[in-house]
Amino acid sequence: xxxxxxxxxxxxxxxxxxxxxxxxxxxxxxxxxxxxxxxxxxxxxxxxxxxxxxxxxxxxxxxxxxxxxxxxxxxxxxxxxxxxxxxxxxxxxxxxxxxxxxxxxxxxxxxxxxxxxxxxxxxxxxxxxxxxxxxxxxxxxxxxxxxxxxxxxxxxxxxxxxxxxxxxxxxxxxxxxxxxxxxxxxxxxxxxxxxxxxxxxxxxxxxxxxxxxxxxxxxxxxxxxxxxxxxxxxxxxxxxxxxxxxxxxxxxxxxxxxxxxxxxxxxxxxxxxxxxxxxxxxxxxxxxxxxxxxxxxxxxxxxxxxxxxxxxxxxxxxxxxxxxxxxxxxxxxxxxxxxxxxxxxxxxxxxxxxxxxxxxxx
Length: 362
Known about the structure:
Mean pLDDT: 89
Strand content: 5-15%
Number of strands: 8
Radius of gyration: 24 Å
Number of helices: 12
Number of domains: 2
Helix content: 40-55%
Order of helices and strands: HHEHEHHHHHEHEHEEHHEE
Oligomer: single chain
Low-confidence stretches: 1-35, 347-358
């Protein structure tokens, strides 16, 4: 051991001062890290308390609504990659695929059918318990059914409800997993079910309780506007909002406009949607009908641009009109980029025709 007693005092004093500063600096780093963790916990507790709509049974509360039939989500990769911030999406597991590409830091899985909300809660449980992507897939598979049901029994309140949902949904989810694995090979891309890093990322969000399964209708006046208010409350921004093809079923009512305009966004925040109608204008992407007899055209649009369309006062505004008038269509690949702002008009009303129809999840 070095003998400090032989050093002159003018050498020792600066050393002691440096050592003291280093220790206090380490404590400060530790303190800042602790505060950061406290802030994260506080933010999560606020975000998960966003108000939600009360769901009523619908004809879509059946097993096949718990999976997506959009087979060319890979077309979105160049647009959504590393967008970050919060993710809001309707439907189920396809949202996790997009969120992994985007590196979203919070995820709202929103749906107006109780079966999808429950299936999303089961998915989050399986992410937490499945250390590897193979474990997650096995829990939904026939070979892992016994373990899956035991997890549900010991981990979720009202387990009989969730067991029933598992049995309704699992045959369709198993098929979807097989399709996802095939598609990723066919089109040479990675997703959270095929890539260890992406799975680890999504699983970390689940373990840290950053994935929120919420009950909500795009046409409602509670959940979606509540998400915007809650994000504002914690000083966070939206990265991506995913509609699937729900917009095909309605002209934009005022509640929808209010909810979207209320979202706190950045310049790179995106709307992601699909459309299956008007194939003459928006050709289906090649291979998008592999798992179904109906294909899809894909579309991305900056939320700031969409907010201008929603504020334009155009009567009866729908996604189709936004895409026709504002989009640049890639007919070969089946994807549209909406980048044009609405033509200036003299608004007569900010309200669009009302509808009680609820869009089916995809």
